[in-house]
Amino acid sequence: MSMFSRLITMAKRVAAGGPKPSFAVMDIKRQSLASMRGHTAHEQRTAGDLSHINKSKTVDNQRVAYGGHTDSPKDAVEAYIKDNKIKIDARNTTPVTSFVLSASHDWFNGPDGKPDPNKISAFTGVSMKWAVSEFGEDLVHASLHLDEKTPHIHIKTVPTYQKKTKFQTVRQASHHKNKSFKGFRSYEHLLDRYTDALAPLGIERGQKVPDDAKGTQRTARQWVNDMARKFADMPMRTALLDEKEKALVKRERNLSQERIELDGYRDALMKAATHLEHEERTAGRYASRTTTELARGRADGKPLTAPSPIREAPVASPVAPVRTEKRARRKKKVVAER
User: What's the average model confidence in pLDDT over 290-300?
Assistant: First the structure.
């Protein structure tokens, strides 16, 4: 079964009202020594956003730490580095790796919907056993928080490895060369091992993201919940689709009736146009006959117009004047000279 098929099956199970699956939660973050101060304040509940903290349950929180520095993860880390003479390369600005271990919120509740102490104890025991087995001496600080909505465990580690030099072997702080973080997709392998440890408690691993998958705004759990709501709303959606289909059929029927009426109007208009063309041709023939009769000057055998008494004489063309006198004088002058 493909990953998509498993998610669809899970969504249908949730939509049908079956038990919701519970998933393991692991958050990993690398930290510098300076940033440890903020976590120490959070651990002591002296700074930061405390609106989500139930102060009446803060006394139930449990801690274990190197050198007894339970109230200060920063002091525990610094003491561990100093006592074990751990070398930190100048390029290694984040020698501390922090974890948050938890599970789905509903898993911690009992049948009455309230946190079940037995479940919390079982989760804490399995998680701490896995952490000690995984990180060994590098597990510097661990804290169980019960005064927030979902129980969870904070873990601080200083990943190290044995670095051999020409003259000696020293412990070097390194995230990538530590056995827990070495290799490709080390975080996925960590989650796999942690989920295997939680499997007897009924806590599952979330679906792996495909290699070619792009980032989305929804987690796998959110996607399952969204699909479950869609499956739950399926009967209502089906009814709405039926209503839309009926409305569409009615609309098509109305459109068909309107098409028939429009065809009738078109035929009537074509007949009216034909009739108008016929009348226009008839009127044209009558006008032509009337014009001919007027040209002949008769209609019904009687003269239509009286003959005009005025007859226009033809207009003579203008003649250019001849200058005979000047020629005659010239002629006389010539004769007299002779």
Answer: 57
